């Protein structure tokens, strides 16, 4: 009889424990979190739509336990300020160019140099390479920022200027808007132009008022940010390939339940796939609208430009801007 009682008590205790664990897991998963997410692109930009899509996917898959509040168009400040805010934990997330990470991970400067990548295939393989993983690990360990997704591949960057850029010589003396990223500054200077740092949200006005003669940007942003309007001249250089990444404060990420982490990771990548396809699909429509508004498109001969920047890459590597042999490692990706 005593044995039977012990067995029954053991079964009862086991059931209670299982119930408590299940309730605990349910409570952990269902705790609602609100994440503040900033961006710098226009409200009607496809990347902003993708940010909202990420928020919608995360909300649906988490049954409402993840709410992402989206703040586009630099509402939370300039890009570099938002990255700093995510690092400090005063802002949860930031979604924009992966190149901003180069400000905090010196070796990442190599990817911000113009003409580093041969084509989209080369760039996509780089994004999934051990080199990129090393950069993202360093970013997380040293700045406390985790990259949830890097698959938001942008349209190649070209140049809107007050004159056509047909050859390398046409860059001479041009004041070109650049972000506060070393690789951009060095690239523009190597081409013979004058790099001028201006915040992304102030670029249109700088072009309109003649503060700068040119800016470079992804072709879709030429339309959504209206960079084409002041000069109605765009030179197709495709000098830079970059992406948009989803950043989150590491401590904030670790505060989420495992289910929420997995959902957020999946949503970030799903939104990235949607963005990459959607921006390509929309490009022809943007081009048609810019042409209808009188914009001329010039095909640039970039051969000499590519050679000039490659020479600069050698100089920068020797100066210690990034690790020795890193540029060659990227070029060797096939």
Automatic annotation (TrEMBL):
UniProt key word Signal: yes
Keywords per UniProt: Signal, Transport
Listed PROSITE patterns: PROKAR_LIPOPROTEIN
Pfam families recorded: DctP (PF03480)
InterPro entries associated with the record: DctP_fam, TRAP_DctP, TRAP_DctP_sf
A GO cellular component annotation in the UniProt record: outer membrane-bounded periplasmic space
BP term (GO), one: transmembrane transport
Family statement: Belongs to the bacterial solute-binding protein 7 family.
Protein name from the UniProt record: TRAP dicarboxylate transporter, DctP subunit
Species: Sediminispirochaeta smaragdinae (strain DSM 11293 / JCM 15392 / SEBR 4228)
């Amino acid at each position: 009889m005593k044995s039977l009682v012990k067995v029954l008590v053991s079964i009862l205790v086991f059931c209670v424990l299982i119930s408590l664990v299940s309730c605990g897991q349910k409570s952990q998963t269902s705790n609602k979190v609100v994440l503040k997410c900033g961006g710098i692109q226009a409200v009607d930009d496809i990347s902003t739509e993708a940010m909202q899509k990420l928020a919608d996917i995360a909300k649906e898959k988490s049954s409402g336990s993840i709410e992402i509040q989206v703040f586009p168009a630099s509402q939370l400040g300039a890009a570099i300020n938002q990255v700093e805010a995510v690092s400090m934990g005063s802002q949860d997330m930031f979604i924009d160019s992966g190149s901003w990470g180069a400000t905090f991970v010196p070796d990442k400067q190599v990817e911000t140099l113009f003409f580093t990548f041969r084509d989209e295939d080369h760039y996509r393989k780089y994004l999934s390479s051990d080199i990129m993983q090393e950069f993202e690990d360093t970013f997380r360990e040293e700045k406390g920022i985790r990259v949830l997704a890097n698959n938001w591949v942008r349209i190649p960057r070209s140049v809107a200027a007050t004159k056509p850029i047909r050859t390398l010589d046409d860059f001479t003396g041009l004041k070109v808007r650049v972000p506060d990223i070393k690789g951009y500054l060095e690239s523009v200077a190597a081409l013979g132009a004058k790099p001028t740092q201006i915040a992304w949200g102030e670029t249109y006005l700088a072009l309109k008022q003649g503060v700068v003669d040119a800016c470079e940007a992804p072709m879709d942003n030429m339309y959504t940010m209206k960079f084409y309007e002041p000069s109605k001249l765009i030179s197709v250089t495709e000098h830079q390939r970059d992406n948009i990444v989803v950043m989150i404060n590491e401590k904030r990420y670790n505060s989420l339940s495992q289910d929420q982490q997995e959902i957020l990771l999946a949503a970030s990548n799903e939104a990235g796939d949607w963005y990459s396809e959607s921006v390509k699909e929309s490009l022809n429509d943007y081009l048609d609208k810019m042409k209808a508004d009188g914009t001329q498109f010039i095909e640039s001969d970039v051969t000499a430009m590519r050679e000039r920047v490659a020479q600069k890459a050698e100089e920068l590597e020797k100066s210690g801007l990034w690790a020795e042999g890193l540029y060659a490692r990227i070029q060797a990706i096939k």
